[in-house]
Amino acid sequence: xxxxxxxxxxxxxxxxxxxxxxxxxxxxxxxxxxxxxxxxxxxxxxxxxxxxxxxxxxxxxxxxxxxxxxxxxxxxxxxxxxxxxxxxxxxxxxxxxxxxxxxxxxxxxxxxxxxxxxxxxxxxxxxxxxxxxxxxxxxxxxxxxxx
Length: 147
Fold this sequence. Notes:
Elements lengths: L7 E5 L3 H13 L5 E5 L2 H13 L7 E6 L8 H10 L8 E5 L4 H9 L4 E4 L4 H18 L7
Parallel strand pairs: 1-2, 1-3, 3-4, 4-5
Keywords: Phosphoprotein
Pfam families: Response_reg
Protein name: Response regulator
């Protein structure tokens, strides 16, 4: 599936092992997106706001993957900030977490998450998840121009 060369997937994930596995899964899925990792929601928001304020200096994101459990600013707080900012509100945001807790799922959708994904237990399932995300967001869906 052809991808425009400037698609960025922004990933807020503080666990170095999970970052490595995600990089490998995107590569195994044949992704052409640039992955940008952030240790927490605060750093992600700084990047997003700078991208909106100075679009010539940054490539805009295609979508965001948020882990629920991060230091300084967790996924829930980050999602709330994104949805309150009129410039960022249309940005597709997916929760990617280990928590399969039904109240968490419901709450994230109530706060405006576009999807809630539980991290698969094995690599092949993660590759399939990444491939499905890319197939939908880079293929079937029309993405809003944020930046």
